[in-house]
Amino acid sequence: MNTKNLLAAACVAALAIPALASAANPTSNAEDSREMRQVLELRGDTAVPVKFVMSVSGAGNEQQQEGQTQGTLVSSDGLILVPGRVVSIDLGAFARGKGMGGNTPVVKSGQFRVRLAGSDEWVPADLVTRDTELGLAWLRVRNPHGKLPFVDFAAAQKIGVGTELYTVMRTSDQFGSVPTVRVGYVLGETTVPRPMLLVDGAPGVAFDGEGKPAGFVDVDLAGMARSRANSGGIGMDMGDMVFSMIPADRVGRVTARASVLPVVKPAEGDEGDAPVVPAAPAASHGHAAPAASSATPDGPATNKNR
């Protein structure tokens, strides 16, 4: 695989992951309909589209491409939780075994903009930090007007296999930028490579039927690449066709620490640069792990990337 094809594959995977979500159909009974309407009413305004500019550099060349993903407001003053792959993508997993050696391109993003519910304006946002171990990142809206609706992870709900999940997303302008609900299920549970649930559904913050946060759903790009390699490059083992979900209590812990950090100002002429935060140690099953930031055991986190 040459560099050009690698870049195309990685960018398509990173930008189009929400489209890979299973089209799980909820049953038509009144209870399911009630829960969908309830989640949409409670959480619809917390879903925010996020635009960014992805820069891909390697072999002396640089390409830029605008991307869009889904974010979730997680504080009243404009903190937004997004997938870590939005900030940067590790192409090592795609290049491994392809003979690219040290020529793996670097992918990083910047120039973040968000569109809040009820607004036609795309407002700037700044990177706060990211957790490389959990694959999460946080942005902050610049100069928000008033308090914003947000997801409070203090109300996290512990769930198990078989639980129905609801993920709220917001459509593009093509469909009027309206909130929608996608349905999924918890399919299984694992402790490898860390404690997490395996789910069907859509990426983003998932809720139970009462609108309480259940966790953060995403896909492991490196894991997908390994699965494809193990199947001879023809296709992935269907047993690995799942999303992973970080339990809500753990997401809440790292989000609380991210909320006290200042934004990271990119260096002049390096608008797309993103900080690399040391990975958090793995948590024991059922317990939250500390955030991937510099922090004392009992004190607030500090950001080394200022």
Describe this protein's structure.
- The protein is of the alpha+beta class and 306 residues long.
- It has one domain: Thrombin, subunit H, CATH 2.40.10.120.
- It contains five helices and 15 strands.
- Strand 6 and strand 7 form a beta hairpin.
- The C terminus is likely disordered.
Give keywords.
disordered C terminus, six-stranded antiparallel barrel, alpha+beta, Thrombin, subunit H, 306 residues
Globally, the shape reads globular
Residue fraction in strands: 25-35%
CATH topology: Thrombin, subunit H
**Largest sheet: spatial strand order:** 1-2-3-7-6-5
Which radius of gyration do the C-alpha atoms yield? 19 Å
Tally of distinct domains: 1
Query: Low-confidence parts lasting 5 or more residues at pLDDT below 50?
Result: 12-27, 268-306
Summarize the structure.
The chain has five helices and 15 strands. The protein has helices at 3-16, 30-43, 92-95, 221-230, 248-258; strands at residues 47-58, 61-73, 79-83, 88-89, 106-114, 123-131, 136-141, 164-170, 179-190, 196-200, 204-207, 213-218, 243-247, 294-295, 301-302.
Topology:
Blueprint: H1 3-16, H2 30-43, E1 47-58, E2 61-73, E3 79-83, E4 88-89, H3 92-95, E5 106-114, E6 123-131, E7 136-141, E8 164-170, E9 179-190, E10 196-200, E11 204-207, E12 213-218, H4 221-230, E13 243-247, H5 248-258, E14 294-295, E15 301-302
Antiparallel strand pairs: 1-2, 1-5, 2-3, 3-7, 4-5, 5-6, 6-7, 8-9, 8-11, 9-10, 10-13, 11-12, 12-13, 14-15
